[in-house]
Design goal:
Layout lengths: L2 E5 L10 H10 L4 E4 L8 H6 L6 E12 L2 E8 L6 H12 L1 H14 L6 H8 L6 H10 L6 H4 L20 H10 L3 E4 L13 H9 L4 E5 L5 H14 L2 E4 L19 H10 L6 E2 L7
Parallel strand pairs: 1-2, 2-3, 5-6, 6-7
Antiparallel strand pairs: 3-4, 3-8, 4-5
Length: about 290
């Protein structure tokens, strides 16, 4: 089995629609794909409606969190999307995205970058606007060569010159809320230092004590020594280890299935979840 547990669609900051995403996953030879858009479950219905036979969909989300001034992302799998407290927190994060993006546009303009809100809104379309959309606007203007090049201290990285904060969950609250909704939590790319500051291992240990289920080890932003250290840390803390592409379509040069999760780990995630269950593809109708 080939299992990719971290992907994004146009419901947040990917470039594939949810329908295109699942079709592309099947074409890439995947057996299981998780849809984990940022702070939203809006892509579930479209992905499920056209889910190809032979592909299983894991519903999820990537939750925006912050602890001790450091941003981090928490992957939440198979939770009840209607659970009110978790739904309310996701809505607070989403509602803060537009004023945040407008604030980044204003900062960039002050720095001499002629980006406009209209340009960013066009790029975001119906998705939840975020930094990647601002970054793509900078690419269009020739300010940076790629979306990744915008995520540096000079521009949009945490604490960068054009960075603006937003409402984010405390990760300990995120674990509590996801568990209350019957879901499973995995700390996404925990040591991706190229993205900015990362939490110390002591915080990962505290999260494990609070009920964190796993950490994402095999990720393109982790080099081989980092993966080895994370795998050892997971063993010490009794955490599951996952692997994923963090696919964003054309926005990043990462292929579906570039990193994958062991089937036994996937089985354990599904065993722990009670809020929702994986959806087997039945060859949905095209739309």
């Amino acid at each position: 089995m080939r299992i990719d547990l971290h992907t994004h669609s146009t419901a947040s900051d990917g470039t594939d629609t949810p329908a295109e995403l699942v079709r592309n996953a099947a074409a890439a030879g995947l057996d299981v794909i998780a849809l984990t858009d940022h702070d939203t479950t809006r892509g579930y219905a479209e992905a499920t409606a056209v889910l190809p036979a032979g592909l299983t969909l894991v519903t999820g989300a990537e939750l925006s969190c912050r602890v001790d001034g450091i941003g981090l992302h928490m992957l939440a799998y198979l939770f009840d999307p209607e659970e009110p407290e978790l739904a309310r927190e996701r809505e607070l994060v989403r509602d803060d995205r537009v004023p945040r993006a407008r604030g980044m546009v204003a900062k960039l303009q002050e720095l001499g970058v002629p980006v406009t809100w209209e340009q960013v809104a066009r790029i975001a379309g119906d998705g939840s606007v975020g930094r990647p959309h601002v970054a793509e606007a900078m690419v269009e203007l020739g300010v940076v060569g790629s979306v990744s090049d915008a995520f540096v201290p000079e521009w949009l990285a945490d604490g960068g010159r054009a960075y603006v904060g937003k409402h984010e969950l405390d990760p300990f609250d995120a674990i509590r809320l996801v568990k209350a909704a019957g879901g499973v939590t995995v700390f996404a790319h925990p040591l991706a230092v190229k993205r900015g500051r990362v939490v110390p291992e002591t915080v990962i240990a505290e999260l494990a004590s609070a009920g964190l289920d796993g950490i994402e080890v095999d990720h393109t932003d982790h080099d081989a020594p980092t993966r080895a250290r994370l795998r050892a840390l997971a063993g010490e803390l009794g955490l599951l280890t996952t692997g994923s592409s963090d696919y964003h379509g054309d926005r990043k040069a990462v292929r579906l299935g570039e990193c994958t999760t062991d089937p036994e780990i996937y089985g354990e995630i599904t065993r722990r979840a009670t809020g929702a269950f994986p959806v087997p593809g039945a060859g949905g109708t095209d739309r």
